[in-house]
Write a structure and sequence with these properties.
With 164 residues, this protein is of the alpha+beta class. It has helices spanning 44-54, 62-69, 77-89, 133-140; strands spanning 21-23, 93-96, 101-104, 114-120, 126-131, 150-156. It has a four-stranded mixed beta sheet. The chain binds zinc ion (ZN). Zinc ion is lined by residues 120, 122-123, 125, 157-158, 162.
Length: 164
């Protein structure tokens, strides 16, 4: 497939906001000109923000991160947003659209294409769950579409009782 962004014609997939969000986020490099990103060490700000996300039990909004990192010298909201943008590009962090909040990527396993977040209304936790691309292809019924990334956000509650 070549040309511009290809959205599955049957599904007309577009990033959406809402409770059950099926965001088929198309990769930025659509035309096959995928260039490997040059490995770059994380900046100090990125490291601080990533460690803050990793240490959090719940997804954090940018403002929460700012509050928690102020003592470490991150005082400008723009520093947080820049770090978050870089971390999400590198797939070290994920933005949960339905919460407008961020979590550290757990990563590993699967083929790295499909990620679902199971978000509990009661305890607020977001569990990362990897989805195999073959399952996604069946689910989205687009056999002729090569996914780069698919994010699903499912809102519900933990099967076991959980604290809130
Ligand atoms: Zn829960």
């Amino acid at each position: 497939m070549s040309g511009g962004p290809t959205i599955c014609a049957e599904w007309n997939l577009k990033p959406a906001r809402g409770s059950f969000v099926a965001e088929a986020l198309l990769g930025k490099q659509q035309n096959g000109a995928r260039r490997p990103r040059p490995p770059r060490k994380l900046t100090r700000n990125e490291e601080i923000v990533l460690e803050t996300l990793r240490g959090a039990a719940l997804p954090l909004k940018a403002y929460d991160i700012l509050e928690q990192t102020r003592a470490l010298g991150l005082k400008a909201p723009m520093s947080i947003y820049r770090a978050l943008a870089s971390l999400t590009r590198r797939r070290l962090a994920h933005r949960l659209a339905s919460l407008n909040a961020y979590v550290a990527a757990e990563g590993g396993g699967g083929d790295g294409i499909g990620t679902a977040f199971l978000i509990c209304r009661r305890c607020g936790r977001a569990r990362e769950h990897l989805i195999d691309s073959r399952v996604l292809r069946d689910l989205l019924a687009c056999p002729d579409f090569a996914f780069d990334e698919v994010f699903l956000e499912a809102i519900g509650h933990c099967a076991d009782s959980c604290e809130n």
